[in-house]
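Summary for the steering committee. One of the milestones for this cycle was to obtain a three-dimensional model of the protein with nicotinamide-adenine-dinucleotide bound, which we needed before selecting residues for the alanine scan. The sequence and ligand used are listed below.
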Amino acid sequence: MVKKVAVIGSGIMGQGISQVFIKQGFDTLLIDISDEILENAKNSIADGKYGLARLVQKGTITEEQKKVYMKNLSISTDYGKLSDREFVIEAVPEIMNLKLKVMESIEKNIPETSIIASNTSGIMISEIGINIKNKSRLIGMHWFNPAPVMKLIELVKTPFTSEETINAVIALANEMGKEPVVVKDYPGFFTTNFVHSWLVESLRLYEKGIAGKEDIDKMVKLGFGFPMGPFELMDTIGLDTMKEIGDYLYSETGDERMMPPPILKEMVYAGYKGNAKIKMNSKGGWYDTDKL
Ligand SMILES: NC(=O)c1ccc[n+]([C@@H]2O[C@H](COP(=O)([O-])OP(=O)(O)OC[C@H]3O[C@@H](n4cnc5c(N)ncnc54)[C@H](O)[C@@H]3O)[C@@H](O)[C@H]2O)c1
């Protein structure tokens, strides 16, 4: 049974994943590149938008419980502290060279029996783990944002991931009240292919002038019961992120339906990168300009 875990990268996803682990009683080590980033992340886990304070306000947990959960969290910039971790998940930015470097540092520092997971949204796990020597312990564990709220975990197995690893991570996900679904390794897995093609198709229909942005969002929400329309969702994911995902899926699969449409590129090049993320360098999202 896994008891000691580590999360690499204390951004949006790393914070959410750590919060779920500490609430479930796991001894959780959170690693990032600077003490300042880590202190901010710790504060956010305690008191941020989706942090534990929100649960105190809602009456789901007490202030006392919040303190106990926070004691399960330690922070460090030192990968050497991974030496006693049984499970490690990386949640660093979606940059291939960075992921490769981080995966190598993880394997160098953890015990031989520990599991190495990646929270990538779509890069093939086999590629991220290209330098991992023991590939039987490598797995994709794709969480959804916000991690404390969303129930799904997409587990991605490569041809070399062992049954033991898959079962251990299924058990881990279940223990945290999540619903794991196991899929095969493929660029974009299931969920990223699905959501990306749906968003691109919405953009194509919008470009054809079939309906306006507000009306498309309205139709998708009221007609199909989706919590967000495609334009709202793109703004949340980040338009630059969506463009990067499209470029990656097209380059890996040759599927032209995945190519970022010109209108999306125009938005990104003009500085509109979405609005829901804390994007300091974004002018806003689809609803902040009427030029496109
Ligand atoms: N944001 C989402 O909605 C979402 C959803 C599912 C999966 N993901 C995936 O999760 C991963 C992380 O995304 P995010 O949105 O949390 O990113 P983010 O930019 O918010 O956070 C990344 C963190 O990693 C840290 N970092 C950078 N280099 C590092 C290193 N060498 N060692 C340790 N930490 C390092 C950064 O300082 C930052 O705090 C990506 O692979 C992304 O595709 C994101």
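Key point for the committee: The chain has two domains: 4-184, 192-284.
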